[in-house]
Write a structure and sequence with these properties.
- This is TIM barrel protein.
- Residues 108-263 form the Xylose isomerase-like TIM barrel domain.
- It comes from Paenibacillus rhizovicinus.
- It contains nine helices and ten strands.
- The chain has helices spanning 11-14, 28-37, 56-68, 82-95, 109-126, 140-150, 171-178, 215-224, 244-264; strands at 3-6, 42-45, 72-76, 99-103, 129-133, 155-160, 182-187, 189-194, 201-206, 231-234.
- Strand 8 and strand 9 form a beta hairpin.
- Helix 4 (82-95) runs parallel beside helix 5 and helix 6 (140-150) packs parallel to helix 7 (171-178).
- The mean pLDDT is 95.
């Protein structure tokens, strides 16, 4: 399993709407260099750094930087509208991405299914996988039904280990139910804490290995479903600290802890040329 970073690994460094901007917002090219600096060769660029806002020239320049640093790119967006998905299929072709990750944003899964069916022939012709992420709007059962209805070799699940709390579902159930359809994995660890007045709980992000996610169990379930070859993307729910600058520092610390942990439990394949890492710290 190959480990990669995402624009949602260093979300505060990219910029979060409604908060002050980071002192030096991370660009896609800076993220490529930072990914390689940590000894990794995979980067997923999602909807918080929208690729459709870049010109063809900018996309080609990004591809050149990625090739120079030996970093594979994956593209992501949100929505199921055919014109959007086909646009991202074209971007995937330009960047050499084997997937387009998306989120179904409408509660009407029947309508989304019809939209997805419309674009699947183009995805098949381009040999690109459409990876639909569980994001809390729909239950696991609804998503399983969607994949069973579609029954197509070029659509599957981008499985996020935490998002389905929004649908009142625990990770162990979600992982077991969606792993048969897995084409891309988002590793996100978490903790659940009772609030100080004892009337309620909060779900908080943690570095990988520091929370309640059973990462070894996750690996075993994935392997049992014959999905050990999928790419795994590290994502972080880093809580806001005193300032965006302080939060970015925490985010970077969590990134380093997470990669160290995932290496220590042999969750990922190592690229021995870069395993020690050479982080370009000036990028942040």
């Amino acid at each position: 399993m190959k480990l990669g970073l995402s624009t949602y690994t260093l979300t505060w460094s990219v910029g979060v709407p409604g908060y002050e901007p980071p002192p030096q917002p991370l660009t896609a090219e800076a993220l490529v260099k930072l990914t390689r600096g940590y000894g990794l060769g995979l980067l997923q660029i999602a909807d918080n750094l929208p690729l459709h806002a870049m010109s063809d020239g900018e996309l080609l320049a990004l591809k050149r930087v990625a090739d120079e640093h030996g970093v594979e790119l994956e593209v992501g967006t949100r929505g199921s509208e055919p014109e959007l998905l086909l646009r991202y299929l074209g971007i995937a072709g330009m960047l050499g991405s084997s997937i387009v990750r998306t989120i179904v944003t409408t509660p009407d899964l029947a309508a989304a299914e019809a939209q997805i069916r419309e674009v699947l022939p183009a995805f098949e012709a381009a040999n690109v996988m459409l990876a639909i992420e569980n994001h809390g709007l729909h239950t696991t059962g609804q998503l399983v039904q969607l994949f069973q209805n579609l029954r197509h070799g070029h659509v599957g699940c981008c499985l996020d280990t935490v998002n389905s709390f929004g649908a009142l579902e625990a990770p162990d159930h979600v992982i077991r139910a969606l792993s048969p359809y897995l084409v891309n994995l988002h590793i996100k660890d978490f903790d659940i804490k009772r609030v100080d007045h004892m009337m309620g709980f909060t779900i908080l992000g943690t570095p990988a290995g520091a929370g309640r996610l059973d990462i070894q169990g996750l690996k075993e379930i994935i392997e049992a479903n014959g999905k050990a070859g999928v790419n795994a993307i590290l994502e972080l729910w880093t809580p806001y600290a005193k300032s965006v600058r302080d939060t970015i520092a925490t985010e970077r610390d969590w990134l380093e802890q997470s990669i160290a942990y995932l290496r220590s439990v042999h969750f990922i394949e190592e690229d021995l040329r870069y395993a020690t890492g050479n982080v370009e710290r000036e990028s942040l």
